[in-house]
Amino acid sequence: MTVFLTTVLVLLCLVVVLLIMFQRTSGGMGSALGGGTADQMLGAGSAAQLSKLTVYGILGFFVLSFVLYAFYQRQADNPDNLLRKGETPALDADPISAADIEVPLPENVIAPPAPAPINVETPVSKPEESPKSESNATE
Description:
By secondary structure, the chain is mainly α. It has a domain at 46-77. Helices cover 47% and strands 0% of the residues. The longest helix has 31 residues, at 47-77.
């Protein structure tokens, strides 16, 4: 029953969208998307009937939504209908700690000797004396 009503609700949504799209628009983007086609297809006096059908479709949508809500709430109250009936797995009584694990050490491993530090001396040059400018020499 619930699946049937949900299918009817989806179809009703599509019908309401189509009814809204057929109605006459005052211009703008709605006319570019096909608004006002009902006058061309159904005649000039079809605006009042489309408005009534749209209102009835939206009322039906709300009533059907609340009926489905009531059905789903009634199913949720019954714990026998739940899909998940698994149990939580029991934890191990004796967990393994990191101190209990023995890691074998490698035997006869010789580390290579560290390289000797290299002393590189950079020569330091003395700054050259700048020649005095002619303006300082004449004074």
